[in-house]
């Protein structure tokens, strides 16, 4: 009997909370809809080869990629810190 009262009380509290919830606007969606100049601009997907426009509704974002300024160090190459050890036994071990 106590368990049923507990479950009933929980159901009542949950239903009260559900009806009090207010949906707030997300600033990200607002910026996308309004058009923030700092955000990447969307491009439309390709039209299907069979004449359909299934991919037309999908929006692809061009995200800027990070370019490496230095070449990648191989695991068996000497470590760039100048210790004389192989990279995998020196600074490569930290990663």
TrEMBL record:
The protein, known as: SecA Wing/Scaffold domain-containing protein
SUPFAM superfamilies: Helical scaffold and wing domains of SecA, Sec-C motif
